Each structure stands twice: as C-alpha cells, then as structure tokens.
C-alpha cells in the first residue's frame, strides 16, 4: 500500500462475507465502502498524515486534501491542473482502492498567490463505463475559499477545459456536488488559509442512502 493511502479496501470477498448469497455489484461494493468510510480509524490516519505534512511545510497557504473512494472499484490518478501552487513532498496517490482514503498537501507558490488546483481520478460507473472524477479547490491570497467538482466521460480532461473550469470554481462557495452518468462526487473545503479539502467519489445514490 502506498504511504499516502489509508484503510483496508472493500473487495468482493469483504462484501460476500457481509452479504452471503447476494450478487456482488459495483453499486453494492460502493455502498459498503461508504458505510465503512471511518472504519478502523482510516479517516484519522489520513488526517494525521496530511497534518504531519503541513507541520513539516510550515506557514503559508495550503490545502490539506483528503479524498475517499466509494465507487465500487479502484480509481487511478489521471492528471491535474495547477493554476496556483504545487503538491508538497508526497505525490498524488497513484491508485485508491474502493474503501480507501488518499491524502496529500497542496501548497501555494513562493510569491503572493494562493493554492488553486484540480485533480482527476479515473474509474467506472455501475455499468462499467469509464468515467473521470474531477475535484478542485481554490484558496485565494485574498477572499473566500471555493470547491467545485464534476464527472465526465473517461479522458474528457485531456482536452483543455481549464479556463472554463477555473471560472466555475471561482464562482462557487465551500461545498459542491455533481451527479453524472450514474456517478456522484462531493467536495467541501473549510475556511482560513490552510483548510481541509474533502472529496468523496462514489456512485449515484450511495452517499444519500
């Protein structure tokens, strides 16, 4: 397991033990993963990790990012867009299995600017179609923080939509959710100059069940 991914994955075997005789679908695995979002203290482990990075980094604008996979399958890191700032020390998690947290710290550049970035993770909807979850945050040098997310077809963000997405991000407040093609994404960001950013990737209906 990578050093910045936390928790035991929710696999077919785990779901079969919980629901013997029931068909194991992505939706069911996603639902179990969401039920287990805090199991075994994995949420605390992710938080301690990113807070440790922040302590090491020191003062300055930063986003303490924690993202959770409740999609029913593994998601794979597929790109990012930095408008302002860069990741600090620990890389973006390459893969996050179903039922795991990933954590990382994004920090502002050395000049007078905030942290503003987006990440993309690729996975599947309940029918096995390839989808990209895009989650983004903005912590301006002056002004209020923002969070924005959307889901599109696989490889969508290999085309440059970033000016448009930046304008959408900067028009939002601290909470946003999107549902598309059977997928769900929820993001929140706190106030202040080094807030927590929390993103949950899931399937439609999982987080509201």
TrEMBL record:
InterPro entries: Jasmonate-induced_protein, Nakanori. It holds the Pfam family Nakanori. This is 23 kDa jasmonate-induced protein-like. The gene is LOC107416211.
């Amino acid at each position: 397991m990578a050093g910045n991914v936390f928790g035991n994955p929710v696999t077919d075997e785990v779901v079969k033990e919980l629901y013997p005789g029931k068909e194991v679908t992505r939706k069911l695995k996603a639902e179990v993963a969401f039920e287990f979002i805090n199991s075994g203290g994995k949420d605390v482990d992710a938080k301690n990790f990113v807070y440790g990075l922040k302590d090491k980094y020191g003062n300055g604008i930063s986003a303490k990012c924690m993202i959770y996979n409740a999609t029913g399958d593994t998601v794979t890191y597929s790109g990012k867009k930095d408008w302002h700032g860069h990741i600090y020390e620990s890389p973006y998690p390459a893969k996050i299995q179903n039922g795991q947290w990933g954590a990382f710290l994004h920090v502002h550049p050395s000049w007078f600017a905030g942290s503003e970035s987006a990440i993309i993770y690729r996975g599947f909807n309940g029918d096995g179609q390839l989808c990209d979850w895009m989650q983004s945050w903005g912590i301006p040098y002056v002004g209020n923080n923002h969070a924005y997310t959307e889901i599109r077809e696989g490889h969508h963000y290999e085309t440059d939509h970033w000016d448009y997405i930046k304008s959408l991000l900067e028009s939002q407040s601290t909470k946003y959710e999107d549902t598309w093609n059977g997928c769900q994404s929820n993001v929140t960001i706190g106030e202040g100059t080094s807030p927590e950013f929390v993103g949950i990737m899931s399937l439609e209906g999982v987080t509201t069940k």
